Amino acid sequence: QVHVVESGGGLVQAGGSLRLSCEASGSTFTTYGMGWFRQAPGKEREFVAAINWSGGNTYYSDSLKGRFTISRVNGKNTVYLQMNSLIPEDTAIYYCAAAQWGPDNFQAMSRSNGYDYWGQGTQVTVSS
How many CB atoms lie within 10 A of CB 15? Predict the structure, then answer.
């Protein structure tokens, strides 16, 4: 049983920044590969960024790379998503997910079905 919780969402003006946090708890044995996804109203869930179990590899959506940065606390299932230069199109519910095991590559870690545990989401709203 793993519990995933996100926090840090809110309302910001275009051009501003937010830092989202996520923690997966319940494991006393392993660290997880972890990722961020987002879903806007009426749209499909979209991959944002991911980081492998050790923190040595990161993966990004091509459209977001350069504005968003994922990081983790080494040896812990705590991850962050730093979001800069926000635009209204970034408005969505942002979800954090954890994978018990799986391939460490972009194709695997950018797919939602590669993850086992999901948080409840945190709302990010960017105004003009």
Answer: 10
Both structure tokens of 105: 């590559």
Gap between the Cα atoms of 128 and 123, Å rounded: 17
Spacing of C-alpha 88 from chain mean position: 18
Residue 76: phi and psi, rounded to 5, are: -130, 155
Asked if 64 contacts 124 with a C-beta cutoff of 8 angstroms, the reply is: no
pLDDT tens-digit profile of 61-90? Answer: 999 989 999 999 988 999 999 999 999 999
Sign of CA dihedral 67, 16, 47, 114: positive
Contacts of 60 (CB under 8 A, 6+ apart): 48, 49, 68, 70
Position 107: which residue type? Q
